[in-house]
Amino acid sequence: MTHSPSPPELRLENQICFAVYSAAHAFAQAYRPWLEPMGLTYPQYLVMLLLWERDGRSVNELAQPLQLDSGTLTPLLKRMEKAGFLTRSRDEKDERVTRIHLTDFGQSLMEQARRIPVAMLCQSGMDLNRLTELREQVQDLGKSLRQA
Amino acid sequence: MTHSPSPPELRLENQICFAVYSAAHAFAQAYRPWLEPMGLTYPQYLVMLLLWERDGRSVNELAQPLQLDSGTLTPLLKRMEKAGFLTRSRDEKDERVTRIHLTDFGQSLMEQARRIPVAMLCQSGMDLNRLTELREQVQDLGKSLRQA
DNA sequence: TGACAATATATTGTGCACAACTTAATTGTT
DNA sequence: AACAATTAAGTTGTGCACAATATATTGTCA
User: Fold this and answer.
1) HTH marR-type domain location, by residue (chains A, B) (predicted)?
2) What does the mean pLDDT of chain B come to?
3) Residue A47 and which of A35, A133, B90, B109 are 20 to 30 A apart at CA?
4) What is the C-alpha to C-alpha distance for residues A24 and B138, in angstroms, rounded to an integer?
């Protein structure tokens, strides 16, 4: 007897999960040339985006929008502190929380980062409207998966 | 002087890269309840999909469709070998290549896996047509990013 | 007030992901 | 045949990602 051939719904190229997984890695690679000169990794860049928008967040106020836990963030933030992007200090009102503040250096990187979005838009090979629509659909998809 | 506020194109919620990154993690989490009973992680499941479709692949014939390198695959395949899903053996014609073959156990898991795609379709909250179209757009996006 | 639950972060251990490098086998050229 | 170039895997080191657990602070309520 021979093996049953794998059905189409089990083929790698038909998996939306893999398309998303693979695109996520492609993004991280595509960002690399812009982030490496700044000394940032891709997840660290995501943290910087949040801090540029609002500084002095707690670990939780980073964890929630990023959908990450302290097990991931704590060592990441320690590396970023060591690299001089930010400082970690105890909140005076509530000694449980750690507050994250950008250093002047970390703050100053925003100017360089401003050029990245346009560059990535070009590399995406899509126009802004299509990309925005795609983003919304992917956000919806993520939301559905998370709450199920 | 005060800090310049971060421009909209640098906000986390407007990044398509983050939407994709976040959805990828959400997928891995959503697959967990189905994969854990089989003893598979999500990346291991991707390898199984390829082997169910065609057994006896070389490491490279896994690496290419997955867009992974041997630095990732070799230890992953060793773990899968240890767990009894597959075997790793030298190709007799070309002693450089390692051939990966499913064990009977590994082959047999396909029956359980057959139920996964429908379950995930439900969790996605989208119909098949919309999901297929979305997959194609995400695949295109990944392709653009990789070649630029 | 004094136990106890809740909250916030940190720690530990495992498994990806990838750059950079190494090792070994094959191919191509002369 | 000799040997450089190529190819295929494997190794090493760093940085995520997350489950499970630990620690410490704050809130609650009997």
Assistant:
1) 13-148
2) 96
3) A133
4) 10
Over residues B88-124, the pLDDT tens digits come to 999 999 999 999 999 999 999 999 999 999 999 999 9
Q: What single-letter amino acid sits at A121?
A: L
A88, β-bridge pairs: A100
The CA distance from A82 to the nearest CA of chain B, in Å, is 23
Residues pairing with A29 in the sheet: none
Buried (b) or exposed (e) across B101-131, using 16+ Cβ within 10 A?
Answer: ebeeebbebbeebeebbeebeebbebeeeeb
Alpha-carbon gap, residue B77 to B88, rounded angstroms: 8
> Quick check: A88 and A13 in contact, CB under 8 A?
no
DSSP 8-state assignment for residue A103:
-
Domains of chain B with bracketed CATH: 38-110 (1.10.10.10)
Which amino acid appears at position B23 of this protein? A
Cα A54 to Cα B78: distance, rounded to the nearest angstrom: 44
pLDDT tens digits, one per residue of A88-139: 999 999 999 999 999 999 999 999 999 999 999 999 999 999 999 999 999 9
Q: What gap in Å lies between CA A6 and CA B52, rounded to an integer?
A: 6
Interface test with chain B among A2, A18, A133, by most B beta carbons within 10 Å: A18
Assign B55 to helix, strand or coil.
coil
Cα A33 to its chain centre, rounded Å, is: 16
Give CA B91 to chain center in angstroms.
25
Model ipTM value: 0.95
What's the rounded Cα separation, in Å, for the pair A66 and B9?
17
Chain B interface mutation, best of A2, A17, A128, highest count of B Cβ atoms under 10 Å: A17
Q: Alpha-carbon distance A103 to B119, whole Å?
A: 47
